[in-house]
Amino acid sequence: MSLFNVYPLFNITPVKAAGSYVWDENGTRYLDLYGGHAVISIGHSHPHYVQKLTGQLKLIGFYSNSVQIPQQQELAHKLAALCGYPAYNLFLVNSGAEAIENALKVASFHTGRKKVISFSQSFHGRTSAAVAFTDDPSIQAPVNSGHDVLFMPFNDEEALQEIRDPEKICAVIIEGIQGVGGVNIPSESFLKKLRAYCNQHHIVLILDEIQSGYGRSGKFFAHQHAGIEADIITMAKGMGNGFPVGGILLHPKFEAKYGMLGTTFGGNYLACAAALAVLEVMEQENLVENAAQTGMYLMAELSKIEGIKEVRGLGLMIGIEMPFPVAGLRKELLEEYRIFTGSASNKNTLRILPALNLKKEEADLFLEAFSNVLAKTLV
Ligand SMILES: Cc1ncc(COP(=O)(O)O)c(C=O)c1O
């Protein structure tokens, strides 16, 4: 049987990983500044994480999918202590897309409405609220799975006034920082306007923190930089440091009813162990603070390099926009300097999404390699 071939892949097979490094089968070491689409939050193979997962397996003696409510509660308790939303409720799922679909469902149930507002260049997984990012124009249209999605211009406060029939809208959904779209930060004023607009029209404000959340921006959630509160927050990616786990945080105004939401694998005990280990390490090692400090250092140093069009980001979610497509730069960084970086739907932006415990020496390795590669490209 062949694989359904939708991913372009590098011809590298990682066989070992630790911290911010991975090794291939020939023993070559790579600095990983992408973390498999931003999932590596506490570093590869963190000892506490490995111990917690293996310990969990040994404790039960086998892997089953049974949901363990005490473990979910332990996770909810820890999350409440760290995330800035102690009074919210937690519903666990397996992936980002599942978190988004459940968030939209809750918004629809709560308001009795169906329309959703999303923004240009947003990405909310393979869900009804996102456009597919691909070079093929035949698959650019949003895939509609029940919600009627209106795409508005990003960061455009005026455009909000032009929305017709706000009484038909159940949710406004926005990323804390747009990731796949090229690391675009919603302005504080835009987020505040959205919050006020949603309050005025009884619309549910969903903050998609699947990529920008869990400490990556230098705050637990990126929208907390703007001082607003969301009604629902979606989470996944770094939540399990590679183990598939996602969730939604819900304002207490949403009343839970049996049968309202459901999931087969969401919140199984291995997922809870992984998610709990991540939070424990984040707390013990001050990783949110490290993301803020190391991110600031990286961005300050990048801004000194000539030839870059713009450096955008918060914490360790950084976009480096060049005046030309970055595919060549990324290839050179990988082949010459053994450094993994990411791209964006905007082909001129290189994305950096390293583990939150990235060290200054590792940041320096990248800065030196990037300067050299750029100097060579610009000759
Ligand atoms: C902001 C955002 N939302 C949702 C998703 C979808 O997550 P998943 O791939 O786990 O379905 C992604 C994935 O890249 C994302 O970046």
From TrEMBL:
Transferase as UniProt keyword: yes
InterPro entries the UniProt entry points to: Aminotrans_3, Aminotrans_3_PPA_site, Class-III_PLP-dep_AT, PyrdxlP-dep_Trfase, PyrdxlP-dep_Trfase_major, PyrdxlP-dep_Trfase_small
Annotated keywords: Aminotransferase, Pyridoxal phosphate, Transferase
GO-annotated molecular function: transaminase activity
The keyword Disulfide bond appears for this protein: no
Gene3D superfamilies: Aspartate Aminotransferase, domain 1, Type I PLP-dependent aspartate aminotransferase-like (Major domain)
Family: Belongs to the class-III pyridoxal-phosphate-dependent aminotransferase family.
Name of this protein: Aminotransferase class III-fold pyridoxal phosphate-dependent enzyme
Species whose genome carries this gene: Adhaeribacter terrigena
